[in-house]
Design a protein that fits this description.
The chain is of the alpha/beta class. It contains 21 helices and 42 strands. The N and C termini lie far apart (82 Å).
């Protein structure tokens, strides 16, 4: 323990002098009746002298004075270390992508150094080694007072790109500050020795391990999604998540190696990112785009010899499909029932029913590729990209003056743009498009004489493609060329919305920040598919998603940053888990003032100025004031309530959570909420609160009968009760209304006495999903478990549910500490999951205050039509 003002302790020498002052107290007055005779009879003729102060009261006053003196001396527990040297301190902080994994420890160590500088009245110069989002060059750090430096460090955030140590070395080489501290991220590089030599730090602090880093995900030969762990020091498992944070699969992972996810194509294509469990970072997150989607291709097996080597219609097609494509075979109805991304029909005329089924498949988003052939030429149908002529055209042969035609360059608007036509490819027979009704926009490939060879048209959400020659060598040698697999790959990509190599540059649509969360970019950047494999991550080329929607290109850190090597840091000390200094002065002064107030009250009682009857009356009044003040505040200002559980940790979490939620609602909406209030049903008035949060931790005592009656009355009169069992997982057995076994037991025990209505699952169709924000899910610290609300029969006249039941631990996601940081980590989605949980909380408050008014918006067009004259 140290003292901020040690000279104040000299006042302790005055305590002996106080002894003689405090030991005396005036005598207590006597109460006498007024009649003079009685007054004269009872008067004493002896002289009164002041009585001595009781020893216990003397010691009580001396203790209060000592506490006051020590409090003004500014005692501090866990004082900051004494810094070497004198003058300003230079604090160099790595805030590149690698620092995010140990950012809380790094900033805590930095604040400890700044606190030590403040204790020694020394200024601080703070230098961050990574450029900001605007790519502004690093500048010479300004020397400021320690308090300003502490605020700057608290506001500093890691960036999702490497640090610019070369620029930092040039700035610190001639810096005048002699005492230099370096907070390293532990990652070295080619220029790191020169940087360290220029810095010549007084002391180096570093993390315990290297940061996690995943390589870019790829598709394996079996179609599985594969990712390589460049660094995984904690051996954390790998999670495959959707864009909304739902976990689709989990793989155990070692410190290095590969993990492969092999899921059904429809499920695997929903994977939006692969992330290491634990605190997410940009290095431990690998974004997946549509180029990694596994395509299920359907091949028509109408012909028994379709797979005959070198002759069958499917022999060459199977070998031309991308290696990651999964294949299913069957007739057209069987293929449509399998929901493939695209279907290949080889010389297959369709009857009316087949054409209708194929049209529905394409309109729903499928890609249908139809090859021509003799049967198609003889029995032409109407489901084509453009009208076709019956019969076929023959080029070359003994009785023909013509020769087989070669391919012309592909049009710029064609999906094949950028591919070079093979001059050795010739077509000797084809079906002709009707020139009288031909739409030039549907021509994706043509012969040198201008005759269309491949037609394509968008129908609904899908695409219909006609290749006007056969899928084998009967009419063309196209299938023997190296161009054929490239054409098939481009057609396969149509079912994935993948940008082709010839696409234009895509703008940055979502930035992957240093903590592994997709955010709105603050600066512009572009990327082409051809650049994705060679570009290096920087402030001008940040990681994230480039392009809109399903066609976005993912740019990850893995293999786009310098190789990950541990930095050589001689004499470095680990960050550790340093606890910040704790100042005891304000608490001691408050205790001293309380003791003086008690002393004044005792003195009044001893002197007779305060009778015991008045004392008891004042005590009862003080005890009655807090509940009365609480009820008055709740009536004058809208606020949220939470039910006390007799578990201090749970009650503090509820208070912090609803405090943050109230602040967030007041900041983002027109609602002005007061601080949350702790409630005890059966004693407090619940009708003053529109929303009451009731956590049910395991082991909490069940409510009393009076509390149950109060809660049931609250729900019956329009209140919204939110019951959270904090379980965190769904019930596989189906018992307990969808809860896990432990949560179901807690819920059944604690709510058995409540008059709960029938419950049903909350869906995105409910007003709760769009009362303020439009949200896809209702997560808390956990996600995936069902959220239950009252069925339609149990709601009020406005169709508002009186109760919401779940086990996602919403308080764990909402709670923030004094610095605004989350107190508990959401699992598994991290900060992205916390954002959705915060928005659900705001929706919840708006719903509790306004009911189902947003549901009326569905009928607004009809109402406006009725109002028109």
């Amino acid at each position: 323990m140290i003292f901020a003002a040690p000279l104040a302790l000299a006042a302790l020498a005055l305590l002996p002098a106080l002894y003689f002052i405090l030991r005396l107290t005036p005598p207590a007055p006597r109460r006498l009746r007024f009649p003079p005779i009685a007054l004269l009879r009872d008067l004493s003729d002896t002289e009164s002298t002041p009585d001595r102060l009781p020893l216990w009261m003397l010691l009580f006053r001396l203790l209060a004075a000592a506490l006051l003196i020590i409090g003004f001396a500014g005692p501090t527990l866990r004082p900051p270390p004494v810094l070497p040297g004198s003058g300003p301190v230079l604090l160099v902080v790595d805030n590149g992508w690698a620092a995010a994994a140990s950012w809380p420890q790094l900033t805590a160590a930095g604040q400890r150094i700044i606190a030590a500088a403040q204790a020694q009245n020394r200024d601080v110069a703070l230098l961050a080694t990574a450029r900001d989002a605007t790519n502004s060059p690093l500048t010479v750090p300004n020397v400021t007072d320690a308090s300003t430096a502490a605020h700057r460090l608290a506001a500093l955030q890691p960036q999702p790109w490497p640090s610019d140590r070369s620029a930092a070395a040039a700035l610190v080489r001639d810096a005048p500050e002699r005492t230099r501290f370096y907070l390293a991220d532990g990652v070295g590089g080619d220029n790191f020795p020169a940087f360290l030599q220029a810095l010549h730090p007084t002391r180096i602090l570093k993390p315990f391990t290297l940061p996690p880093l995943l390589g870019p995900p790829t598709l394996g030969p079996d179609g599985g999604l594969r990712v390589h762990a460049i660094s995984n020091p904690g051996g954390q498992p790998l999670l495959a998540e959707t864009a909304t944070g739902t976990i689709l699969a989990r793989q155990e992972f070692t410190s290095s190696g590969d993990a492969v996810f092999t899921l059904p194509p429809g499920l695997q294509n929903r994977i939006a990112r692969l992330v290491l469990a634990g605190d997410p970072t940009a290095g431990g997150t690998a974004l997946a785009d549509s180029s990694l989607h596994t395509t299920l291709a359907g091949l028509d097996m109408r012909s028994a010899n379709a797979d005959t080597p070198f002759l069958g219609a499917l022999y060459y097609l199977r070998r031309a499909l991308p290696a990651s494509t999964r294949i299913t075979t069957g007739t057209l109805p069987q293929l449509i029932a399998a929901h493939p991304g695209l279907i290949f029909l080889t010389d297959t005329p369709l009857d009316a029913a087949g054409q209708e089924a194929a049209r529905h498949y394409v309109e729903a988003g499928g890609v249908l590729v139809r090859f021509a052939g003799p049967e198609t030429a003889d029995r032409q149908d109407n489901f084509t990209a453009d009208p076709l002529l019956r019969g076929d055209r023959r080029l070359g042969g003994a009785l023909s003056w013509t020769t087989p035609e070669t391919l012309s360059p592909f049009p710029a608007a064609s999906p094949f743009a950028g591919l070079a036509p093979d001059p050795k490819v010739t077509v000797s027979r084809q079906i002709l498009a009707d020139p009288g009704s031909l739409d030039p926009a549907t021509v994706w490939a043509s012969l040198n004489d201008g005759t269309p060879l491949i037609l394509g048209q968008t129908i609904g959400r899908g695409t219909l493609v006609n290749i006007l020659t056969t899928a084998n060598t009967d009419w063309s040698n196209l299938v023997l060329s190296g161009l054929y697999p490239q054409l098939i790959a481009r057609l396969t990509s149509l079912s994935q919305s993948v940008p082709t190599a010839g696409s234009t540059a895509q703008p940055l649509s979502a930035l992957l920040n240093a903590f592994g969360t997709l955010t709105i970019p603050t600066a512009s950047a572009v990327l082409t598919p051809a650049q994705r494999d060679t570009v290096m991550i920087s402030a001008t080329q940040p990681p994230g998603l480039y392009g809109p929607g399903d066609g976005a290109i993912a740019l990850n850190l893995g293999q786009h940053i310098p190789p990950l090597v541990a930095a050589r840091l001689p004499g470095a000390q680990p960050f550790g888990d340093a606890t910040p200094p704790e100042r005891l002065g304000p608490g001691l002064i408050a205790i001293a003032m309380l003791l003086f107030a008690i002393d004044l009250l005792i003195s009044l009682i001893l002197r007779g100025a305060f009778s015991r009857r008045r004392f008891l009356l004042a005590l009862l009044l003080c005890l009655a004031l807090p509940p009365a003040a609480q009820a008055q505040n709740a009536a004058l200002q809208t606020g949220l309530g939470y039910i006390l559980t007799n578990d201090p940790a749970t009650d503090k979490l509820s208070a912090d959570a609803l405090g943050y939620l109230s602040t967030s609602v007041s900041a983002h909406t027109s609602v002005a909420l007061g601080p949350p209030v702790a409630l005890t049903p059966g004693r407090d008035d619940l009708s003053l609160y529109p929303l009451i949060y009731w956590p049910l931790p395991p082991g909490a005592p069940p409510p009393t009968q009076a509390a149950c009656a109060d809660l049931s009355r609250y729900m019956d009169h329009g209140g919204l009760l939110m019951i959270d069992t904090q379980g965190g997982d769904a019930d596989a057995s189906g018992s307990g209304a969808g809860f896990a076994d432990g949560a179901a037991a807690t819920f059944a025990r604690d709510t058995a006495c409540l008059n709960l209505p029938p419950l049903e699952k909350l869906t995105t169709a409910s007003v709760l999903a769009h009362s303020f924000y439009i949200i896809p899910d209702f997560p808390g610290r956990f996600t995936g478990a069902p959220v239950l609300i009252a069925a339609a029969s149990g709601r009020d006249a406005d169709n508002v549910t009186p109760v919401i039941v779940g086990q996602n631990d919403w308080a764990g996601a909402w709670a923030r500490d004094a610095g605004g940081n989350g107190e508990q980590a959401p699992i598994p989605g991290g900060e992205a999951q916390r954002l959705i949980a915060d928005r659900f909380g705001i929706n919840l408050v708006i719903y509790a205050l306004t009911g189902s008014y947003k549901a009326d918006q569905n009928t607004a067009p009809a109402l406006l039509d009725q109002l028109q004259p």
